[in-house]
Design a protein that fits this description.
mainly alpha
C-alpha cells in the first residue's frame, strides 16, 4: 500500500513540460551569462541549469568572502562601538 501511495504522490507533483519551459525561461532572466546573449540564441535547458548551479556557487563564494571581510573588520573596531553593532547585524 505504501508503494501505491508513493507513486500517487509522485504523479501528483509531476511537472508538465510547459511548466519546465516556463521555469527555465525564468531562470534565464537571472543568469548574467545567458541574459546577455541575444534572444535568438537558443540555449538548452541543461545549459541553463548548469549555468544556474555555477551562478549559485559563485554567489556562495561572494557571500563567504564578504562574511570573512566583515569578520576582519569587526576584529579591528571597538566591540562596544556602533560600527561593531552594525557589522554584527550584517553577519547575522
Amino acid at each position: 500500500m505504501s508503494n501505491r501511495r508513493s507513486r500517487q504522490s509522485s504523479s501528483a507533483t509531476r511537472i508538465s513540460d510547459d511548466q519546465i519551459i516556463d521555469l527555465v525561461s525564468k531562470l534565464r532572466q537571472f543568469l548574467p551569462e545567458i541574459r546577455e546573449r541575444r534572444r535568438s540564441d537558443k540555449v538548452s535547458a541543461s545549459k541553463v541549469l548548469q549555468e544556474t548551479c555555477n551562478y549559485i556557487r559563485k554567489l556562495h563564494r561572494e557571500v563567504d568572502n564578504i562574511s570573512d571581510r566583515l569578520s576582519l573588520l569587526l576584529d579591528s573596531v571597538d566591540e562596544d562601538s556602533q560600527e561593531a553593532a552594525v557589522i554584527r547585524n550584517l553577519l547575522m
